[in-house]
Design brief:
Layout (H helix, E strand, L loop, with lengths): L2 E2 L8 E2 L7 E8 L2 E8 L2 E4 L3 H23 L6 H13 L1
Antiparallel strand pairs: 1-2, 3-4, 4-5
Length: 91
């Protein structure tokens, strides 16, 4: 039995054999485009080598500030996760 795709018109049907094959994001910052895609085979990205040191610095800074916020019982890890995804994609 087919399942309905709730984002499609009610007449559209989605086969149960269909599955998500990739997830990711494209971000444009200061004239630069960063794209990251995660699949079953791994993570790919198009981050320039020169940006790696900057991403590592941002991750360290955010880790420190996140640790300070956690000490105050306040969590906001979205920024850290986004930067970590970018750094992993470079490898």
């Amino acid at each position: 039995m087919d399942q309905q795709n709730l984002s499609a018109p009610s007449s559209a049907q989605v086969s149960p054999a269909r599955r998500l094959i990739a997830a990711g994001f494209i971000r444009r910052i200061a004239g630069r485009t960063i794209s990251v895609r995660a699949t079953e085979a791994g993570v790919t990205g198009t981050i320039k080598t020169a940006r790696v040191a900057e991403l590592h610095r941002l991750c360290r800074e955010d880790y420190t500030s996140s640790a300070d916020r956690r000490a105050q019982d306040h969590r906001d890890d979205a920024f850290l996760l986004a930067r970590a995804s970018e750094a992993v994609a470079v490898r």
